[in-house]
Design goal:
By secondary structure, the chain is α/β, with parallel strands linked by helices. It contains 10 helices and 19 strands.
């Protein structure tokens, strides 16, 4: 019997997600004449957290077996596809900062507060080009990352571009909501995926299905052991001027004798112009909440306008260019979380084969979804075409460690 040539068998691969589709179409064994790659998206490309979260890149992110590879791959993708111009890829400083808020609607409070702030923070060393925080507002500054190991992207622009690049190599994009994974007899392997499109039920035959549907993954494969997903609110602001590239995790103190009280401590991400906006913006997000259950799809995520307003009030109380800016987006999204965890605790993601032939998982990335997207896509393409990952040792992320069978 003649030996099979690697990659010579026809494959019909359905990807519910985007990054892996890009890497499948760049794999050395990919042949569009016998391999089909379909991106199946419920509402639109990057409708969930892939398009609405912050976009911090960090070589020091979790999981350590994946993050360095993914950080490096982000840089390679940006260089290859003009990511600095298209999806705002750039290196940044990252810091934990304690800030004293000021009531910018009260001139007297500003004057007094700044005087107090200068005196209070006189020993705090702040980078000279960090000129967009209020003078004297920095109470402490602890560097967490440098341009050598930290960066950022506009998640929406990045994900949309990867999908487009996959299409250019033969992938197909179908906008339809997956409703079921269909199996061969005795669950020996997958056979197809059912989905609805404009109210009509349809089926895609498949040799391989990759579930990278974020917090919605358990709806299609209940053995996926994800916890209750957190919801996060964010705003995008057009500031009154461009801001230097510093990403902040803040702890904001409210001013005394002011109408401002119980301020949030948002994350702040100045962004350069990209394919979404031809001007600089600022992304800011508040703390997660677990109050509202996961809806059926990304287009029905409830946005609490007051939570968005609270985020903007907080970031506007420490920066005049942000305070004078214009809020252009208010939004919310859910993250795929295995369970709540400490900041540096390594919990997932879940990446690899499920034990059912042809069914693969890539989910549970939590706050590091876009950071670890390229690394995940690369190793998943290797698993699917080569049978094993070569670029990183992801054994600790194998679904067998996480799946919970009935």
């Amino acid at each position: 019997m003649p030996l099979k040539v690697p990659g010579s068998e026809p494959r019909s691969i359905v990807v519910i997600g985007c990054s892996t589709a890009y890497f499948l179409t760049r794999h050395r064994l990919y042949n569009p004449k016998i391999h089909s790659v379909v991106i199946l998206e419920a509402t639109k490309i990057a409708g969930g957290s892939s398009g609405k979260a912050g976009g911090l890149l960090a070589e020091y992110a979790t999981h350590k077996c994946l993050a360095p590879l993914s950080f490096k791959t982000h840089g390679e993708l940006a260089k290859k596809h003009r990511g600095d111009k298209i999806w705002g890829h750039r290196s940044v400083y990252c810091a934990d900062v304690a800030l004293q808020a000021q009531d910018l609607n009260n001139e007297a409070a500003i004057t007094n507060g700044l005087e107090d702030g200068h005196e209070e923070s006189s020993t705090t060393r702040v980078p000279s080009d960090l000129d967009w925080l209020l003078p004297g507002s920095v109470k402490s500054y602890t560097e967490a990352g440098t341009p050598n190991n930290s960066g950022q992207v506009n998640r929406l622009a990045f994900t949309e571009t990867l999908a487009q690049l996959a299409k250019e190599k033969g992938a197909q994009v179908i906008i339809g909501s997956a409703t079921a994974i269909n199996y061969r007899d005795k669950n020996s392997g997958i056979s197809s995926v059912s989905y609805t499109q404009n109210g009509i039920s349809k089926t895609l035959n498949a040799t391989d299905i990759l579930l990278a549907a974020g917090p919605w993954t358990p709806k299609l494969f209940p053995a996926t052991n994800l916890g209750k997903p957190p919801r996060g609110h964010s705003v995008v602001v057009r500031p009154s001027r461009d801001l230097s590239p510093y990403v902040f995790f803040t702890n904001i103190s409210a001013p005394q004798n002011s109408s401002l009280s119980h301020l949030l401590s948002p994350e702040i991400y100045p962004r350069p112009d990209d394919k979404i906006h031809d001007f600089d913006t600022v992304y800011a997000c508040g703390p997660d909440d677990y109050k509202v259950p996961l809806p059926d799809s990304t287009d029905t995520v409830a946005v609490d306008e007051q939570r968005c307003n609270d985020v903007y009030t907080a970031v506007g109380s420490v920066s005049k260019p942000i305070h004078e800016g214009e809020v252009i987006t208010k939004q919310a999204c859910y993250k795929p979380q295995i369970r709540p965890h400490e900041e540096d605790e390594e919990v997932g993601p879940i990446i690899g084969p499920t034990g059912i032939q042809g069914l693969w998982l890539a989910t549970g990335h939590d706050e590091w979804g876009i950071q670890n997207a390229p690394g995940t896509g690369l190793v998943m393409s290797e698993m699917i075409f080569d049978g094993a990952a070569h670029s990183a040792d992801c054994e600790s992320l194998d679904p067998k460690h996480f799946l919970k069978w009935d």
